[in-house]
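Figure 2 data, in text form.
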Amino acid sequence: MENYQLGVIESKFADLIWDHAPMTTRQLVELCAKELDWKRTTTYSVLKKLCDKGFFRMENKVVSVLVTKAEYNSFRSEKFVEETFSGSLPALVLAFGSRKKLSREEIDQLQSIIDDMRE
């Protein structure tokens, strides 16, 4: 999973694909020209890189998703907790809660998540 890291530009590009896939490569080129001001060659270069990393697949001129945005965000969150808090989710919550007071609604949401995980 080490390959599952995106830079700022790659993230913007991936968001376009996640928001519109499946799509043809032509549609992607047009979208990137409009949203990112990219040329066709730039779009294909970045697409190839992210296909090689296993995020997307291009087959018969159709781009599809292999790793969803939710899966990517989950991986990055787990990696952040591992690297920053030695894998301790309670340490993350404690650090966050020491700087920002949680609302009653946020506490209830966290409790609900914990209760669901116990089942």
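Caption note: Residues 69-85 form the longest helix (17 residues).
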